[in-house]
Design goal:
mainly alpha; 3 helices; about 0% strand
């Protein structure tokens, strides 16, 4: 599964068929960090819409991570 789904899974926000429900915030943070790295590495090679989508996705995941840490 992809980095956004993995981040949600490790925050306990998503389920993956065949895998037990788990919560591991350091792994969630690691997946968000990978998305940040991909955003930086693809800068200038994506459309404006793709860049906006990536930015919004990262922000949403970061907010969810803060909420999950409470």
């Amino acid at each position: 599964f992809g980095f956004p789904l993995a981040a949600l899974y490790y925050m306990g926000e998503a389920t993956v068929q065949g895998m037990p429900q788990t919560k591991n915030l350091p792994l969630a943070r690691q997946n968000i960090d990978i998305l940040l790295l991909l955003k930086e590495k693809t800068k200038g090679n994506v459309t404006e819409d793709e860049a906006k989508l990536m930015e919004q996705l990262i922000v949403d995941l970061q907010v969810k991570l803060v909420e999950a840490a409470k």
